[in-house]
Amino acid sequence: MREFLIRILINAVAIAVTALLIPGIQIANNDITTLLVLGLIFGLVNSLLKPLLLLLTCPAVILSLGLFIFVINGVMLMITDSLAGARLTIEGGIFTAILGGMVMAAVSIVLENVLKLDDSAKRAQAELIVYSDSRGKE
After folding, report:
1. pLDDT tens-digit readout, 75-131
2. Which of 78, 80, 84, 73 lies closest to 34, judged by CA?
3. CA 35 – CA 16 distance, rounded (Å)
């Protein structure tokens, strides 16, 4: 639960930074409540729809050497815009959303690394613990 709340905060900060940097992306009233609601909506969209879209567009992702993921991130931002009502506005179409998705991904990566939320590091640590436990029982 704690990690979920931290991810909502990360999404809220990423949306705020994106709105500051990209001229076509606006947040209705730039207060913390709106940002947290947007972070929650974006987190839910990402966790529910992104895996399905990645599966359906796997050939495009492979053929573009992973660059199509930027398009998927833009689509996730557009879906968040449509679900958020007047809280988030993306003007300029899909290209603005793709650019916003790139900024959001960069901010999220930095914040996740600063806050030590990297899943691969946790997995490696868990594997190390399991490996060391199994060696001690031999």
Report:
1. 999 999 999 988 999 998 899 999 999 999 999 999 988 887 766 555 655 665 655
2. 84
3. 7
Listing DSSP states for the chain in one string gives -HHHHHHHHHHHHHHHHHHHH-TTEEESS-SHHHHHHHHHHHHHHHHHTHHHHHHHTHHHHHHTTTTHHHHHHHHHHHHHHHHSTTSEEE-STHHHHHHHHHHHHHHHHHHHHHTT--HHHHHHHHHHHHHHHHHHT-
Exposure of 98 by Cβ count < 10 A (0-12 exposed, 13-18 middle, 19+ buried)?
Answer: middle
Q: Nearest CA to 24 among 103, 126, 110?
A: 103
How far is it, in rounded angstroms, from Cα 51 to Cα 7? 17
pTM above 0.85, yes or no: no
Both tokens of residue 75?
């689509």
